[in-house]
Amino acid sequence: MNWKLWPALLLVAGISQAELKGKTIDYKEGKSVLEGYLVYDDAVQGKRPGVIVVPDWMGMSPFAQDRAEQLAKMGYIALAADIYGKGIRPKDAKEAMQQVGLYKGNRPLMRARAKAALDTLLAQPQTDASHVAAIGYCFGGTTVLELARSGAPLAGVVSFHGGLDTPTPEDAKNIKGKVLVLHGADDPHVPPDQVAAFEKEMKDAKVDWQLVKYSGAVHAFAVPTAGNDPSKGAAYNERAARRSWQAMKDFFAEIFAQ
């Protein structure tokens, strides 16, 4: 298929009668069972680009499934990835922080869980294995960047208000695709020194990268359930959420056209 025509084909697919096919799907990382959510539009014929969606620190949630379904409506096949494991669903911020700590403190495991999702998506008959990307929110943004640093065969990754730190910045040389970071300019959880270190990491590795900062936006700006009080450090920002989603769409139109 000529992927330069993909945006036009997506428009045609949108005009036709969409029929989303969504299902929970079990897969494994080692002996650990993971439970993701796979979805695609059955009105789109043949193979199509695939997108991994890595959720925020609350793990698999209606928000993660909704993002996957939005991508499916755009003509992609999407898999909302389970990083924590089947049945591990934090009930509150305390439990979520405990889970995040396990993976931020063990980046090889974080990468392995993300790769298991990628391998599962690549195995689907609807997926064009040469055109796959990953997006992530907050903790998920950190995760997709680590997946890229591992050398995974990705056309690109998108981090929405994700942590940018890594214990192995030298691994950026392994990144095969392009990188888009969508960042809240006032995010206290990802301070300027972390942003500067990330920029240096990308430059040193000669990665094709972009970093977009949204004024007035703090952490979790794209998550509607994050509240509306920026003084708490995390809050939904409708303008930044809308602009960042459009930036992702433009990014996909570029990386999947090549």
Structural notes for this entry:
With 258 residues, the protein is an alpha/beta fold. It contains 7 helices and 8 strands, in the order αβββαβααβαββαβα. It has helices at 6-15, 62-73, 93-104, 107-122, 139-149, 192-205, 238-255, and strands at 20-29, 32-41, 48-54, 77-80, 127-137, 156-160, 178-184, 209-214. The chain has an 8-stranded mixed beta sheet. Helix 4 crosses helix 5. Residues 11-16 have low confidence and may be disordered.
Which features characterize this protein?
single chain, 258 residues, alpha/beta, eight-stranded mixed β-sheet, globular
Low-confidence stretches: 11-16
Main β-sheet description: 8 strands, mixed
Distance between the termini: 11 Å
Strand order, main sheet: write it out.
Answer: 1-2-4-3-5-6-7-8
**Structural class based on helices, strands and sheet pairing:** alpha/beta
Question: What general form does the structure show?
Answer: globular
The chain-level mean pLDDT equals 94
Helix content: 25-40%
- Supply Rg: 17 Å
Strand content: 15-25%
Number of strands: 8
List the helices and strands and how they pair.
Blueprint: H1 6-15, E1 20-29, E2 32-41, E3 48-54, H2 62-73, E4 77-80, H3 93-104, H4 107-122, E5 127-137, H5 139-149, E6 156-160, E7 178-184, H6 192-205, E8 209-214, H7 238-255
Helix pairs in contact: 4-5
Structure summarized in a few sentences:
This protein has seven helices and eight strands; from the N terminus they run αβββαβααβαββαβα. It is α/β, with parallel strands linked by helices and 258 residues long.
